[in-house]
Design brief:
66% of the residues lie in helices and 1% in strands. It contains 18 helices and two strands. Strands 1-2 form a two-stranded antiparallel sheet. The longest helix is centred in the middle third of the chain and has 24 residues, at 221-244.
Length: 420
């Protein structure tokens, strides 16, 4: 029996059963997601790619992917934007990041053919998290191989472990407050292990969950936005003082003190790359530079001026943080890096994902009982899109998030005339 057929057959018996443990359908999706732990080519092609490729013939046989065609088409446009940018800039090809967008299109089609409900995608995300853990435990990257607990937690395990724990708590029918307490404990763990961004993601998710719980009868999106912005600002202001006291360990204290001593503006969340990204985008907003290896020196010079204008010290070591060992520019942002490399058309999918995740954050109640999982995933995706580079399985996660965003969009009401 085909894989998608076996998953759908299990749904009939499991749909009405109380979910205090994952049912057969959910376990099937978790197993499918775990296949992503098998690397096939770099960080873009995994065992899950093979499963998705096997499902593509179903699309040819007129199986519908619904509105998931929107992010799928934007993924293909991203690949074409890289190819166009390479041609405009006289480069031989679009580089490895262009392949990511082809993989995204394949993942989106395959996942949308498999997952018809929000809980399906949530289970798949848990499986992807397990696959990510398998990869970092047995293969790893230069950032984790030979590293200690802090390195492996920061670069490999934290998001995967967090979504798995929240998923299990939802399955066990725990309250929002129990789930929030678990997220707070995970945030404290990340602070102790010098992973501030993950701690912020957990804290913001807690805030959204608690506000949503208390406003079920009369929900106000503006209040949610205001609360999230206030929380992020408070986190940025309070953390330096808390870290300097040694409350969260020596590693965090050293990191924050170093950044404050170097004069990195806290408004950039400790990141130094945005001035370079913005300067590269302003110079070539439509077609980009083709590759991070193709950024000329005058763009770095303009970026230095911009950085000093927004608060960086003049003697800051820009070259040290803006250039990777292979000579390429370090954008450290999927949205900004894609825009700088492939132009605005390449950035359409990342921007669409960012906007869709913000909608999930502002209106989390659409996910029903799965709101804790979808909220956490949306907040994490927003951070990764703005402040992270591509890494292992991140394309797979974004594809699942794209399908999740499509499933959570409100359906058009059916009028009496159209139903006849």
């Amino acid at each position: 029996m085909p894989l998608d057929s076996s998953l759908r057959v299990a749904a009939a018996a499991d749909r009405d059963s109380p979910l205090r443990v994952p049912n057969r359908r959910s376990l099937g999706f978790i197993a499918v997601g775990a296949a992503s732990g098998v690397p096939v080519a770099n960080y873009t092609v995994t065992g899950l790619s093979v499963i998705c490729a096997l499902l593509v013939p179903a699309l040819i046989m007129s199986a519908s992917i619904g509105r998931a065609w929107i992010p799928a088409v934007m993924s293909i446009l991203g690949f074409l934007a890289y190819a166009t940018s390479a041609t405009v800039n006289g480069l031989p090809d679009g580089g490895p990041n262009s392949v990511v967008f082809l993989s995204l299109a394949l993942y989106i089609v395959g996942i949308s053919l498999l997952c018809r409900r929000v809980e399906d995608v949530c289970a798949l995300l848990v499986g992807i998290g397990i696959g990510t853990g398998i990869f970092y435990a047995f293969v790893g990257t230069p950032l984790t191989i030979g590293g200690g607990l802090a390195d492996n937690w920061k670069y490999g395990f934290a998001p995967a472990v967090t979504v798995s724990i929240v998923y299990v708590l939802v399955i066990r029918q725990k309250s929002i407050y129990v789930i929030s307490a678990a997220l707070v404990l995970l945030a404290l763990t990340s602070l102790a292990l010098n992973f501030r961004s993950h701690a912020l993601v957990c804290v913001v998710a807690v805030l959204i969950l608690v506000i949503s719980k208390r406003q079920l009868t009369q929900y106000r999106p503006l209040r949610m936005v205001t609360a999230v912005v206030a929380m992020v600002a408070a986190f940025a202001l309070i953390l330096p003082y808390a870290s300097r006291s040694g409350l969260f360990g020596r590693a965090l204290e050293t990191k924050v003190s170093s950044q404050l001593g170097e004069g990195v503006p806290m408004i950039l969340s400790g990141r130094t790359e945005p001035p370079l990204s913005f300067s590269a985008i302003v110079e070539k907003p439509w077609f980009g530079w083709g590759s991070a290896h193709n950024i000329p020196e005058y763009v770095f010079a303009h970026a230095r001026l911009l950085a000093v204008d927004i608060g960086f010290p003049r003697d800051f070591r820009f070259e040290f943080v803006w250039k990777l060992p292979d000579g390429s520019a370090s954008f450290h942002s999927i949205v900004l890096g894609t825009w700088a490399e492939a132009g605005i058309f390449g950035a359409l999918l990342p921007l669409w994902l960012l906007a869709s995740c913000l909608v999930i954050i502002i209106r989390p109640g659409r996910a029903g009982r799965w709101m804790p999982v979808t909220t956490l995933v949306a907040v994490q995706a927003c951070w990764d899109l703005v402040f992270s580079p591509w890494s292992y399985n991140l394309a797979t996660v974004f594809a699942a998030v794209a399908v999740l965003c499509v499933l959570l969009r409100p359906k058009r009401p059916v009028t009496a005339g159209s139903s006849q």
